[in-house]
């Protein structure tokens, strides 16, 4: 049996409690390359449609929650590229798809991946359906201790050891 999402909406605002944790981990969000036009997370710089946050340079303390759909892999590619600059990046509230090629080759072995947050249960988005899919957050060049301190109540944080 194949299960498909029946929802046409592809962009969901980051839940408030998750956004609060991200702000604490980064001590503010410097860049949100994929946000709503009202910049609801209050990033110092941001990009929203019709702009394309993949086409701009990122910086330290970037948080990215890209739209669900067929462009997720290109957002992950951009994240991997920007993390190589040493920027602290929190990547998405993505559908947890650990079996995919992009996760296995592009992200799991990325030398800058430092922590993974697996959310408890399924996220409930403020304006969208809740409990649809398991989600995670990937952290690059960011202390796993900081992620645990500020976001551990939301799920399980695993530090990544590349040794």
Question: What topology emerges from the helices and strands here?
Answer:
Elements lengths: L15 H11 L4 E5 L9 E4 L13 E3 L7 H12 L5 E7 L5 H7 L5 E7 L15 E6 L3 H8 L3 E5 L4
Parallel strand pairs: 1-2, 3-4
Antiparallel strand pairs: 4-6, 5-6, 5-7
Helix pairs in contact: 1-4
Description:
- With 163 residues, this protein is an alpha/beta fold.
- It has one domain (27-159).
- Helix content is 23%, strand content 23%.
- The strands form two sheets. Strands 3-4-6-5-7 form a five-stranded mixed beta sheet, sandwiched between helices. It has a two-stranded parallel ribbon with strand order 1-2.
- Strand 3 (62-64), helix 2 (72-83) and strand 4 (89-95) form a beta-alpha-beta unit.
C-alpha Rg, in Å? Answer: 15 Å
* Main sheet overview: 5 strands, mixed
Give the averaged pLDDT, no decimals: 84
Number of strands: 7
How many helices does DSSP assign? Answer: 4
Unreliable runs, pLDDT <50, ≥5 residues? 1-9
Helix content: 10-25%
Strand content: 15-25%
């Amino acid at each position: 049996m194949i299960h498909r999402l029946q929802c046409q909406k592809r962009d969901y605002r980051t839940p408030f409690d998750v956004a609060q944790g991200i702000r604490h981990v980064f001590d503010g969000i410097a860049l949100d390359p994929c946000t709503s036009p009202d910049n609801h997370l209050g990033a110092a710089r941001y990009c929203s449609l019709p702009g394309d946050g993949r086409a701009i340079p990122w910086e330290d303390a970037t948080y990215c929650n890209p739209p669900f759909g067929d462009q997720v892999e290109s957002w992950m590619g951009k994240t991997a590229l920007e993390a190589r600059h040493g920027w602290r990046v929190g990547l998405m509230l993505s559908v947890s798809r650990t079996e995919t090629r992009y996760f296995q080759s592009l992200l799991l072995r990325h030398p800058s991946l430092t922590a993974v947050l697996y959310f408890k249960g399924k996220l409930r988005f403020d304006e969208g359906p809740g409990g649809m899919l398991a989600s995670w957050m990937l952290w690059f060049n960011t202390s796993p201790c900081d992620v645990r301190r500020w976001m551990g109540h939301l799920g399980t944080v695993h530090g990544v050891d590349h040794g």
